[in-house]
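Regression test case RT-17, inverse folding.

Input:
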């Protein structure tokens, strides 16, 4: 077992990034069409193909999911994933070829690196082609390449974040995994101890509590276009589309335990939930454990990040 989302049977992950421009995308490829749900809690989301995941709508499975930097521009990366899958003959058979179903979500990383370079169709294709079942790379890779946290004291006092993954395997065969790109306006903490791992820096270059900083202002100090945490939780459970949506809702608890503040007016926090359908499992169990695994993935994302774009990282303070 790798301790990452690829421990879920049938799940592969690939990344592509521009390390100079500090942006990238990550693709979750599925060996077989799988049930998927989504839950958007942030009020400024950038998403693609999420309406079809409503349990009332026709299409019940997806073939891949794309997480990307680049703000709304980054949604183009999903087109490259579709191209890759079409070439493999993978997609919904519509009688005139196949249409790959690739939901996507983006985060805002234009303030880091070169804002003129964004994940595009070519980068999405590269990420899909690179997908493997090997342990997921973490930190400054894929959708986490330009991710940052702690922006309430200005971007110059923010910290670098990244991409993280985690998994949990139960004796009965249930496997749950998570992949997350952490790009929060607030701070990230270790839920078991309350330690702030990364957040806004003060004039002494000490990490501050974001909520305490908010209380010092008579108005909301959250700068637009600086936020959004996007994630995928996956399991080998048999779930309906409605149950997968419920798991996505419950998984947001993992973000609430680790990121403060979360789900603000300037966030686009989005979680996809995939179920590959191999074993019976209670939806409440899958949802509760998905929150735990996602919280662990958030912590891993911050701890694996390296300083970049002039921003220090967790590793800068913990040699």
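Golden output:
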């Amino acid at each position: 077992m790798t301790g990452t989302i690829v421990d879920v049977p049938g799940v592969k992950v690939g990344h592509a990034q521009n390390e100079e421009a500090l942006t990238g995308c990550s693709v979750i490829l599925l060996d077989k069409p799988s049930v998927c749900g989504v839950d958007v809690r942030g009020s400024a989301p950038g998403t693609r193909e999420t309406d079809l995941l409503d349990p009332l709508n026709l299409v019940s499975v997806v073939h891949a999911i794309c997480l990307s930097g680049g703000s709304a521009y980054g949604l183009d990366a999903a087109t490259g994933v579709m191209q890759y899958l079409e070439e493999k003959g993978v997609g919904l058979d519509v009688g005139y070829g196949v249409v790959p179903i690739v939901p996507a979500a983006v985060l805002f990383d234009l303030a880091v690196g070169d804002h003129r370079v964004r994940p595009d169709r070519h980068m999405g294709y590269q990420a899909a082609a690179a997908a493997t079942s090997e342990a997921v790379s973490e930190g400054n890779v894929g959708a986490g390449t330009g991710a940052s946290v702690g922006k309430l004291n200005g971007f110059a006092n923010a910290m670098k974040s990244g991409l993280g993954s985690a998994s949990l395997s139960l004796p009965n065969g249930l496997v749950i995994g998570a992949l997350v790109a952490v790009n929060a306006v607030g701070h990230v903490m270790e839920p078991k101890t309350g330690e702030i791992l990364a957040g806004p820096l003060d004039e002494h270059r000490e990490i501050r509590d974001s909520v305490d900083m908010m209380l010092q202002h008579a108005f909301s100090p959250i700068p637009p276009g600086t936020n959004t945490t996007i994630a995928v939780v996956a399991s080998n459970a048999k779930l309906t589309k409605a149950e997968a949506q419920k798991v996505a809702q419950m998984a947001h608890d993992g973000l609430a335990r680790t990121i403060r503040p979360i789900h603000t007016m300037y966030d686009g926090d989005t979680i996809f939930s995939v179920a590959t359908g191999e074993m019976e499992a209670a939806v409440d169990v899958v949802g509760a454990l998905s929150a735990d695994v996602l919280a662990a993935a958030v912590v891993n994302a911050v701890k694996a990040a390296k300083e970049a774009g002039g921003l220090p990282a967790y590793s800068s303070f913990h040699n």
